[in-house]
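Batch job 17 of 40 flagged for manual review because the log was empty.
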Amino acid sequence: MTGKGQAGAWRSGDPDVTDKDQAGAWRSQDLDVIDKGRTEAQELREATLCFLLRGGAPKEILLGLKKVGFGQGKYGGVGGKVEPGEAPIQAAARELYEETGIVLAESDLQPAGRLAFRFPHKPEWTQVVHVFTSTSWTGEASESREIVPAWFGVDTIPFERMWDDCRYWLPRILAGERVRATFVFSSDNDTVEEFDVRSWK
């Protein structure tokens, strides 16, 4: 699935190639260019998101209301920055514990997505996010300095209070699909201008 905003054009002729040709705009010959973590001359930040799911189908998802920092005031998955020398799956387990008190084994985390976020008007926010889900853990989620955790039914997810990109990929992950996606944000650094979402085998 691909899309575009009011400005610019999105072209997808090959399943593994996306680009945007515009003066001063970014160009990616392959999504791996972003996933490997480099813009033109700059290391990309890597981060994680973890979604706890319960109720079989699933029926419920744990989200966190961000209290401080990046994404303040928005709901999202629990996660944060991958530290130097740390694997994304290790970071996901660590961040979940630090932000909610929930403990899980790395083997209980299922890779669900790789998302590249481009912020042309605020490049320090550009990052690659590794998404995980889990249905097995120990403990109950509790509020921390970073977030207020809350369970939502999968049919009542507050997309209007989440990052704009979530509506394009989270329902697909909840349906059991693994996704790989790229999002480009507009000048307000809040609205998705262009996107490309694909199944990830």
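Reviewer: the log was empty due to a logging misconfiguration, but the result itself is present. The domain at 46-199 is CATH 3.90.79.10 (Nucleoside Triphosphate Pyrophosphohydrolase). Unflagging and moving on to job 18.
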